[in-house]
Predict the 3D structure of the following.
Amino acid sequence: MVDTSMATKGHTGPLVYLSRLSKFLTMITSWAGALVLLINVLVVFLSVIWRYMLHSPIEWAEEVARAMMIALVFFGVATSTGRGGHIGVDLFLRFIPEQIRPYIVHASRWVLFLVAVGLVISSYDLGQASWLQTTETGLPQVIYVIPVIIGSVVMMVAALEHALRERAKVVLVSGAGIVVLALLGYLKLSMMPDPSSAAAGFMLICFVLGIFAGVPIAFTLGMSAMVFFICDPSLPFVFFSQQVISGVDHFVLLAIPFFLLAGAAMEINGMSTRLVELVVRGMGRFRGGLNMTTVLSMAFFSGISGSKLADVAAVGGVLMPAVRRANQNSEEAAGVFAASAVISETIPPCVNLIVLGFVANISIGALFLAGLIPAACLLVLMLIAANRFGGKINIREAYPKMRPLLQLWIGAIVGLAMIFMIGRGVMMGIATSTEISAFAVVYAIVVGRLAFGELTFRATVKMFVDTAAMSGVLLFIVACATSLSYVLTIQMIPQEIAQFLVGIGVKQGAWVFLMLTIVLLIVFGAVLEGAPALIIFAPILVPIATQLGFNPLHFGIVMILSMGFGLFSPPIGLGLYTTCAICGVEMKNVIPPMIKYLAVSLFGIIVIAMVPTISTWLPRLAGY
């Protein structure tokens, strides 16, 4: 992970005032993001109550929720920029000579600033264009744009402050390098009779440079799309912010922050620690008991938070102290965490299932059901591997102070009840995934507070603030990936890839196409992370797979599992970097003990790919 923040000690003058301004604005956006998230939960929750109990739907609820969703994204990403909380892939930086590495790393901060400036300019123009327009229910269209302008301005100030936090030589040289690259690009375009023909090339160069320089993935995607719009004079620059906004202007995506919030509430309430301790005390007596506990805990939390990185953070924070107290291998434990995250990719309400359903026009409820049996198969395989390769532990060493069993069972029952509520709601079609996620939030906060009393008012406020910031980071990736996907579409790149892959499927067979898809998604899943890779590839690959005779539910599950495998696989898996950071270990020490667990995961993915019934039986039984 690339840390985009540094200490400000030793700086005086204008930078001090800029730092104070950045902190003040970041505080404002953090509170605003938390407030917007709270209001959004209440709006969605009450709209369902109104519809079912009073038989009178609130007509404006969805539009207001979408507008606040955009506000949540841009307030959240502004807050994360101020905190230095974006994630990038720094694997390639180690191959750069140490003398110039600081300048390359610092140049990524200037990229954050430039993308923020581009968003400010483009969104301001969009605001002017939409000033007199209204939505279907008569609300002013500008309500969708104002949060973007505010969030982009705060992001610009925070990014500038971070860019200036360094030795003067590093700041000036890295900034000069960016300027020189921009001038070279401008000169190249000025000498071409048709500058728009070079737009795609410049976009690709920016993308590759961003990945190699460790620029946070959202800003790598945003920078690539922004450069394309700048280089192509036939496209108004206002399209840049318009496409970024359209990427998150969807009611269904609200399920992502809602499920993250529900997971955070479960953790703060103490339900997660109680459940994990119960499983450790039950499984610890067996061979590989602690590893099996990790596998089961990751599967359980995948059914709550929806985010794999959030799952690793939640389970890792609880289990790693027990691993060390029991004198177990921390590197192997980290490898089990990462491999278990792969097998949990299709357990509802996984974020990627929601994103796939949204971009590929597949029923999210059907995807939730389609992922259950594949997840169960992979879970069994991983439990067998954990038992075979693990050792026994002394439970008293892992938990010197044990809670009463009644407390542990209450925590487990409350958590499992929420999982049952989510699954029942999906199977019966009682509500949409977004509405169910709103109910999950209310349940986790109210029931958890009544059952355990650990969720104080202060902790609740912090939970909303932190979840809003995390949601902003995740959904800003989706927003920028959508903008880049739009650019690829108008360049006819998806169509060309589609023709190439259809040719392979027709000549070599559909199963060759499927195997190539798995390899492709493992590679891009490692670099892009799940959501942006899905947004770019799902609209291309799913129709082709359907044309070649694959069930879209089966193919979608294979896609998600393949990208999850790439995300947590060495040497460049972004999720593996996060796991190592959470577990406090080095990747080079994690890879050897992890390989055997990854091999088990890959075997399971191939079996699921080759046997479509594993994914399609349950949805077909439910009538999808």
In short: The mean pLDDT is 81. Residues 338 and 579 are 6 Å apart (CA to CA). The chain is about 75% helix and 0% strand. The radius of gyration is 24 Å.
